[in-house]
Design goal:
By secondary structure, the protein is of the alpha+beta class. The chain is built from four helices and nine strands; from the N terminus they run H-H-E-E-E-E-H-E-E-E-E-E-H. The longest helix has 26 residues. The radius of gyration is 19 Å and the shape is globular.
C-alpha cells in the first residue's frame, strides 16, 4: 500500500511538472493581456518599467509628463514615514484603475498598479508574458515575484486562474520579507511538503 501511495505521489508530481512546461509553451503563442502591455518595452532589460517609467531613474517631472493623459494626479505625504507619493485614476476604459508612484527623494522608487476588477487579470496571464515566477514573498497578502514585478492575490494558493488585484514594480532590494522558492503550480499541501517553513502551512 505504501509503495502504491509513493508511486501515486511521484506520478502527480510529474504531472504537475508537465503542466507547468505546457503552460509556458502555450503562453508563448498568446499576446500579452492589455493590463501588461506597459511592461513589454522593458522586458529583458536590467531595470523594470511601466509605460516608460523606471523606478530608480524617472524623476517626478518626467513621471508627470508621461502621466499627463490621466490629469495632474493627487499628491500624498505621510508624516510618519516622511514618504511622498502621487496617485492617478486612469481614464476608462483601462485595465488599470489606479496608478500610484512612491518617491525616493525626487525619483520614482516604486510603482503600484491597482487592477480593475473587470479586467480579469490572472496569474496565468503574467506567466504567459513573463515566464514562470521565481519566488513567493509573504507580505500579506502573499506576493508572487516575477523578477522585478511583485503581484498579489486574495487566493490562498497561487494557480494559473488566481485573480490578480495589485502589481508592484520595484527593485528586489526593496523587499525585506523572506523569500520562498517557487515550485510551480502545485497544490498547497504539496508546496508545504517542499517548503515546510512557509507561514501559510501552519
Amino acid at each position: 500500500m505504501l509503495k502504491r501511495l509513493s508511486f501515486l505521489a511521484s506520478g502527480m508530481a510529474s504531472a504537475f511538472a508537465l503542466l507547468n512546461v505546457l503552460a509556458g509553451l502555450l503562453g508563448a503563442q498568446r499576446p500579452p493581456h492589455p493590463a501588461l502591455v506597459g511592461f513589454v518595452p522593458c522586458m529583458g532589460e536590467a531595470r523594470p518599467c511601466w509605460n516608460g517609467i523606471i523606478p530608480g531613474v524617472t524623476s517626478i517631472n518626467e513621471m508627470h509628463q508621461i502621466m499627463a493623459f490621466a490629469g495632474p494626479g493627487v499628491a500624498l505625504f505621510d508624516d510618519l514615514t516622511e514618504s511622498y507619493s502621487v496617485y492617478f485614476i486612469l481614464p476608462q476604459p483601462s485595465p488599470v484603475c489606479v496608478a500610484m508612484f512612491q518617491f525616493d527623494q525626487h525619483v520614482v522608487g516604486r510603482i503600484q498598479l491597482q487592477i480593475c476588477r473587470t479586467a480579469n487579470v490572472r496569474v496565468g496571464d503574467l506567466t504567459t508574458t513573463f515566464g514562470m515566477p521565481q519566488q513567493l514573498v509573504v507580505i500579506p497578502p502573499q506576493d508572487l515575484v516575477y523578477n522585478h514585478l511583485a503581484v498579489n492575490s486574495k487566493a490562498l494558493n497561487f494557480q494559473p486562474y488566481s485573480p490578480i488585484s495589485f502589481m508592484n514594480v520595484l527593485e528586489l532590494t526593496q523587499i525585506s520579507q523572506p523569500f520562498y522558492k517557487w515550485h510551480g503550480f502545485v497544490p498547497l499541501w504539496r508546496y508545504c511538503q517542499l517548503e515546510p517553513n512557509y507561514p501559510l502551512c501552519d
